[in-house]
Design a protein that fits this description.
The complex is a heterodimer of chains A (177) and B (190). With 177 residues, chain A is of the alpha+beta class. Chain A has one domain: Glutaredoxin (3-Layer(aba) Sandwich), CATH 3.40.30.10. Chain A has helices at residues 2-20, 67-82, 99-109, 122-127, 157-164; strands at 26-33, 38-41, 46-48, 57-62, 89-95, 116-118, 134-138, 143-148. Chain B is an alpha+beta fold and 190 residues long. In chain B, the strands form two sheets. In chain B, strands 4, 5, 6, 8 and 9 form a five-stranded antiparallel β-sheet that branches. A four-stranded antiparallel β-sheet of chain B has the order 1-2-3-7. In chain B, helix 2 packs antiparallel against helix 3 (62-69). The longest helix of chain B is centred in the middle third of the chain and has 11 residues, at 107-117. Chain B starts with 7 loop residues before the first helix and ends in an 8-residue tail after the last strand. Classes of the chains: A alpha+beta (177), B alpha+beta (190). The A-B interface holds A 24-25, 27, 63, 65-66, 68, 95-98, 101, 119-122, 124-125, 130-132, 149-150 and B 54, 58-59, 120-126, 128-130, 133, 136, 139, 141-146.
Chain lengths: 177, 190
């Protein structure tokens, strides 16, 4: 009996560990505050990241000339569908391109995405991405907790499960406020 | 501890003598290529017409295209295939032509160029993101890519690259050499 309970406890532990293991290419960030992000969307409507406080935010920077962006964008659109109602807000930011370039690109790869337009590229620079594409996961309290390295297939189960199980109140590493 | 593929002086000598030295060429690519279980490195020389067309399609004005056309672009891609951090610090990469070290046209150079022609901020941002970063701590599986730019009168380049490893840059040091890499010219018809 005790042995069976032990096995069950071990199985539960392994399941929890699997749920919290980081998927490939996801790097933890020591909770630095997310820079301000106030831009107009493609339709000219003002948007402010701060208005979505209380939710996890998936903040993604891209440009049409970037080949990995082209491969990644359809997977983001699919992830948005799969995670609808999960509470995650998707914020997709085009870096320094014209409306024509953005329209042409998205129409061919992910027509349902409504991007924010960083027309001069300065908002993108403030986030200090490692390159394009770049994805940051911002916690409900407004701190960057994870950064994706290069383009990812966000519609794959390993990434969807990870995004679904993001904690409401992330643990704060010692030394970080 | 230092892991050296070749001693540095010998490497430099070989770079001057060998038509191509870049590890094993295991599959055909349009430019120097190195691959092992730690990393993939691909260097692709571009013609002035290719680069000019790329930036023209993104709204760069003629004055900017003119300056871009008079330089030598090479697109560098590196992928970390190890389980350790791989440091790519261009300050530790050296470029030689005709037996002399040559400069890489970096951020400061382009800032001056763009100031002279009053290039708009959006184009500066785009240009910046298309350049290879000066320093990158490549995490396991992380790729990085971008352009290296050299003076336009450069014809062939030898590259002596040093990459450090480990989270604190204290792991084995890797030396790579790429020899006699040609700056591509436009074909007469273009």
């Amino acid at each position: 009996m005790n042995r069976a309970r032990g096995c069950l406890a071990l199985a539960c532990l392994l399941v929890n560990m699997a749920a919290w293991a980081l998927p490939p290419g996801i790097m933890p960030v020591a909770g630095r505050p997310a820079p301000a992000l106030q831009l107009n969307d493609f339709n000219g409507k003002p948007c402010n990241l701060a208005d979505t406080a209380g939710h996890w935010r998936f903040v993604h920077f891209w440009a049409s000339w970037c080949a990995p962006c082209r491969r990644e964008m359809p997977s983001i659109q699919q992830a948005m569908h799969r995670l609808a109602g999960s509470g995650i807000e998707f914020v997709v930011v085009n870096t320094a391109e014209s409306e024509d370039d953005v329209f042409t690109f998205l129409a061919s790869v992910a027509p349902e995405i409504l991007p924010l337009m960083d027309t001069d590229g300065l908002a993108t620079a403030a986030w200090q991405p490692r390159g394009l594409p770049a994805t940051f996961l911002v916690d409900p309290q407004g701190k960057i907790r994870y950064q994706a390295l290069g383009g990812r297939h966000w519609n794959e189960p390993v990434y969807l499960d990870f995004l679904r199980h993001l904690p409401v109140r992330p643990a704060t590493p010692a030394g970080n406020k | 501890m230092q892991l050296r593929i070749l001693p540095c002086r010998l490497l430099t000598a070989l770079l001057c003598l060998q038509p191509v030295f870049a590890g094993a060429l295991e599959r055909p690519v349009n430019g120097p290529y190195f691959e092992d279980d730690r990393m993939l490195v691909v260097l692709t020389p571009r013609t002035p017409a290719q680069m000019s067309a790329f930036y023209e399609a993104r709204g760069f004005p003629p004055a900017a295209l003119e300056r871009i056309r008079h330089t030598c672009f090479m697109t560098l891609r590196i992928e970390n295939r190890s389980r350790d951090v791989l440091w790519v610090d261009l300050g530790q990469w050296h470029f030689y032509a005709d037996g002399k070290e040559i400069p890489r046209l970096g951020e400061h150079y382009w800032q001056q160029q763009w100031d002279e022609i009053h290039l708009r901020q959006a184009s500066r941002s785009t240009f910046g993101w298309t350049q290879f970063p000066q320093l990158r701590d490549l995490q396991p599986e992380e790729p990085v890519g971008g352009n290296l730019v050299f003076p336009g009168n450069t014809r062939r380049i030898n590259i002596d690259a040093m990459l450090q490893t480990g989270a604190q840059r204290t792991g084995p040091v890797i030396h790579l050499g790429f020899g006699n890499v040609a700056c591509r010219q436009d074909s007469p018809a273009s």
